[in-house]
Amino acid sequence: MRMKCIFLLFSTTVLSYSPLLFSTDNENKTQQVYHYKTKVAAHRGGKALFPENTLYAYQQTVSRWRNCLLEGDIQITADNIAVLMHDTTVDRTTNGTGPIKEKTLSEIKALDAGYKFTTDGGQTFPLRGKGITVPTLDEVLEAFPDHIFLFEIKPLIENVFPITEPIIKKQRQGQVYLASVHPQVIEKIRKEYPEIKTCFTISDSFGFLSALRSETWSSYTPPAQMLAMNEKMESSFNITEDEMKKIKQKGIQILVFTINNPENIRRYVPSQVDWILSDYPDRVAGIESDWIKK
Questions:
Q1: pTM for the whole thing?
Q2: Alpha helices in 32-144 (DSSP H)
């Protein structure tokens, strides 16, 4: 995830948990389902474990970590349908070729979204021909009515209706956050659909930090409901523990991305971060579980 939201890093006090775990009865009986407020957030559905941005990935993830956040990327087809895919072309993840914006939904649906998935460096492709397709945004929201989503809008678009319409139709305004590297896309959504949640953009950063470090913070109205952070920017912003508490008091959700190294995950588990976005949600869940048991 390469969102140019405000990128921050911090170290804060321990967040208290009320864990309740039980083993599932599915084929993976060693996996546990989390019922407390987990920090697990699956980048593209857990792209290291499953074919990214697919219903299959999200289904596998939520069967293991019930309260996790699901992240994905949005592209727009030639016939103005929002589909989940990271790249501008279908080449890397499917058996097709060419730009998404030049293909209709029916052409996209004919592709095998599990075709290129491998966990052994390309020696095997276990999910080819299994019926895994590129999902629409509408299909994803329909399939997971109780989950929180973060979607990054990849293209620079004028017409946001293909994205906002499924969210409003499914009444998911309270559970879906939208982000983009293009501030003008987010600004358009905020103006036309203020009920839909958004991420802070780079354009929001000056006003945000200025208010945070001044007496105007009490009257500051956040333009967004989620702060996405990159761990590499700690030295640039140097957010203190007191400042982090102030941010949390404004009701802003905090997500840090994309954390795959176990040692780095351990830094965030006892913090006030709401979500730890990872290609390996199993690592976050395992480290979180170990920390809770201590």
A1: 0.87
A2: 55-64, 105-109, 137-143
